[in-house]
Amino acid sequence: MPIKAADIAYQSRIDSYNVSRAVKSLQNKGLIDIQLSEHSRNIKFLVLNERGRTLYQQVTEAMNKRATELENVLDDNEQALFFQMLEKIENKAEQILAEQAMSKIADGEEPPADQKELIRWYKKSKQRR
């Protein structure tokens, strides 16, 4: 499924500069192809090619196996509680970091690009709650 680099940055909460570097690396290794949008020349979609899909499948199979082994340590109730706690911690960490970045801006400082992205993500996630 094609995806834009900006969407990867947003969903993974990785700075767009780092995503761009990773995209170039993946393209140089022959793991992805770039498709131009039919509607805008500025929009480029990233698509795993056959080589990339093969590697992706190998990696996800190994990760899924490991995840299953780890999940089996907890019963269903413990897993549900664990994921609720993780979500709560992640949301609070995102809030703290975004508020610190907004405070820098309020003080006239220029925050790094990743902090600007964090503010954008935080505001978007706040709207969904």
Q: How many helices? A: 5
**Main sheet overview:** 2 strands, antiparallel
The residue ranges in which pLDDT falls below 50 over 5 or more consecutive positions are none
CATH topology of the largest domain: Arc Repressor Mutant, subunit A
Provide the domain count: 2
Overall mean pLDDT: 89
> How would the global form be characterised?
flat
The value of Rg in angstroms is: 19 Å
Fraction in beta strands: 5-15%
For the secondary structure, the number of strands is 2
Please give the alpha-carbon distance between the first and last residues. 28 Å
The first-level CATH class of the largest domain is given as Mainly Alpha
Within CATH, the superfamily of the largest domain carries the name: Winged helix-like DNA-binding domain superfamily/Winged helix DNA-binding domain
| Approximate helicity band | 55-70%
Structural class: mainly alpha
Succession of helices and strands:
HHEEHHH
